[in-house]
Amino acid sequence: MHGVRRGVLITFEGVEGSGKTTQAKFLVDWLIARKIPHIFIHEPGSTKIGEAIRSILLNAENKVMHHKCEVLLFLAARSQLTYEKIIPALQQKKVVVADRFSDSTYAYQVYGRDLPPRLISVFNRFATAGIKPDLTFLFDLDIAEGRARGVFDDRMETVGKTYHQKVRRGYLKVAHRAKKRIKILNGEKPVDDLKCEIVDNTKAFLIGKGYKL
Ligand SMILES: Nc1ncnc2c1ncn2[C@@H]1O[C@H](COP(=O)(O)OP(=O)(O)OP(=O)(O)O)[C@@H](O)[C@H]1O
Ligand SMILES: [Mg+2]
Q: What is the chain written as a DSSP string?
């Protein structure tokens, strides 16, 4: 912790079933083993208000939800999470591990739903107080392969295949524009190989930020 000025935000992104939660949990185990102070959060949710918003967003019965309402609800949940959990953790010099964050909005709402990028970017900055991830792992995986890994039946997951293909392409566009921050990982690789890549990248990143490991 010596030399660390503020905590860091590490995010996990990718389409459904691509391995985000599996790998985020491995990273949390790695931080625990090294006694590195951290918090683990997921989006939408991780606060009482955020979980209530999550249940509205993911309820498959809410088919009438307008795309504008959808993006604003995601951002409302993110805003609560930012002020209630992320900012205090960063101030306490903790590592924040987030299962989804802002890049999801660009992939799912801007690219996926064709919402205006500049406006959404302003709203996102407003919601997050301008906090950006410091390091992002993006799991790139064929939509069908991700789906074959589990049951996907919530409101977002049941939108058609074409939508999810747009989301996948959207993620890659976002990553292309932020090459330094976003590490694209091949989601087809075995769990243990991905785990090694994530630990190696995180280790190098944290050392660069002044963490003694
Ligand atoms: N690299 C991998 N290869 C094969 N199976 C995997 C891999 N990573 C995760 N899985 C399995 O795929 C399923 C989905 O993984 P996980 O829940 O981590 O994905 P996710 O990206 O968090 O999905 P969601 O978007 O639904 O939250 C789990 O059953 C998990 O064990
Ligand atoms: Mg998950």
A: -TT--S-EEEEEEESTTSSHHHHHHHHHHHHHHTT--EEEEESS-SSHHHHHHHHHHH-TT-TT--HHHHHHHHHHHHHHHIIIIIHHHHHTTPEEEEES-HHHHIIIIIIHH---HHHHHHHHHHHHTT---SEEEEEE--HHHHHTTS---STTTTS-HHHHHHHHHHHHHHHHHTTTTEEEEETTS-HHHHHHHHHHHHHHHHHHTT---
